[in-house]
Specification:
about 375 residues, alpha+beta, 434 Repressor (Amino-terminal Domain), 2 domains, 8 strands, globular
Length: about 375
């Protein structure tokens, strides 16, 4: 009995097999360890006959991810890539002031660590090849902090031995253009949410207006969860006093928007977990969800209370990033208005408060 390329057993009758002359002994080839620095031999290892494994046969029938991760012996490439990507990124593009005395044009390691929510020591170990297998959360944070394209982000996952995100998952990667936009619009309170309203990152003025986002034990801060449960989205005293629509209409709009997102990403585990959680914990959410309404959340005018400057009447606009379903939320005020003057005052406190950096799903190491 021998096997073809698909691992399916094919029986050849003994009578039909021609006699074969004795073959010389072949040298035994060994597979290199994952940490070996030598390149793999270009020839394929000698295939030996073995008994069919039912487990392997069952696995071969399962769908395979279209892109397979690179074996972890490419950690040298990961280290070199991280250094190269850090060196090419201008500090101005991430919101740091220009004109700072620097020996190099790119980001410093401590700046990358702050942007990604990692320790400086871990970034050093990654760039030196001493840390070789970052988690998916760390890879996502690095791709966002380094402003990688989607192709570069996927390559980062692969050389780290990870599977890149699939189209079935809600996108969390912020394109470089959107990050540069946020860095250049520092005079506006801005935040970026996923399609399911997870808060990914926000500007210093957003924090000055509403407070620093509260990081939950797992995952990211979520606007819908904070609305229907007791979990706070921000740690400050800033909050919405009133809105052009009612609070009930705002909640109904978010739930109908979430149903639309669930239809677009029915296999996303984060979306399914959020819905399951709120169906149990909130009677209001359950009633709205069971109504079956499908819609899209719209912009509106709000009165926001700040503990520093009091009430501000602001336009809250929601922009969707094409191709990613990310939501960019911006608060603006008319030039010369009382709200604009209060935002100017908050902007000064935001600058003196330092650069917040993007939010990491799990700040680690």
């Amino acid at each position: 009995m021998e096997f073809d390329a698909g691992h399916a057993a094919r029986v050849i009758p003994a009578a039909a097999q021609p006699a074969q002359p004795p073959q010389p002994a072949q040298p035994v080839q060994t597979q290199q360890c994952a940490d070996s620095t030598q390149p793999a031999h270009p020839e394929q290892p000698v295939q030996t006959k073995k008994r069919a494994d039912p487990t392997q046969l069952a696995q071969s029938e399962q769908p395979v991810h279209p892109v397979q991760p690179v074996p972890p012996d490419t950690h040298g490439e990961l280290a070199a890539l991280l250094r190269s990507w850090r060196d090419r990124l201008s500090p101005v593009d991430v919101g740091y002031p220009a004109g700072d005395s620097r020996r190099a044009t790119g980001l410093r390691r401590e700046e990358l660590a702050a942007l990604a929510g990692l320790s400086v020591d871990y970034v050093v170990r990654l760039e030196q090849g001493r840390a070789r297998r970052p988690s998916a959360q760390v890879a996502s944070a690095l791709a966002r902090a380094l402003q990688l394209s989607d192709t570069e982000r996927d390559h980062l996952y692969l050389v780290a031995g990870l599977l890149p995100p699939t189209p079935a998952e809600v996108p969390t990667h912020i394109p470089p253009g959107v990050q540069r936009l946020m860095a250049r619009l520092g005079e506006i309170p801005l935040a970026v949410f996923t399609a399911s309203w997870d808060l990914i990152t926000c500007s210093p003025l957003w924090i000055a207006l509403l407070g620093r986002p509260v990081q939950p034990a797992a995952g990211r801060p979520n606007l819908i969860r904070s609305l229907f449960t007791d979990s706070a989205l921000h740690d400050g005293e800033g909050h919405i006093v009133s809105r052009s629509g009612s609070v009930d209409a705002f909640g109904a709009s978010l739930v109908s928007d979430l149903r639309r997102v669930h239809g677009r990403y029915p296999l996303d585990r984060g979306v399914n977990a959020l819905i399951a959680e709120l169906l149990v914990s909130s009677d209001v959410f359950r009633a709205l969800w069971q109504s079956g309404t499908v819609g899209e959340h719209q912009s509106e005018r709000k009165v926001v209370h700040s503990e520093v400057v009091g009430d501000l009447e602001l336009d809250c606009d929601v922009f969707t990033v094409a191709g990613t379903d990310l939501r960019v939320v911006a608060y603006t005020a008319a030039t010369g208005s009382a709200a604009a003057e209060k935002l100017d005052f908050l902007r000064v406190s935001a600058v003196t408060g330092g650069h917040p950096g993007p939010l990491a799903a799990h700040p680690s190491r």
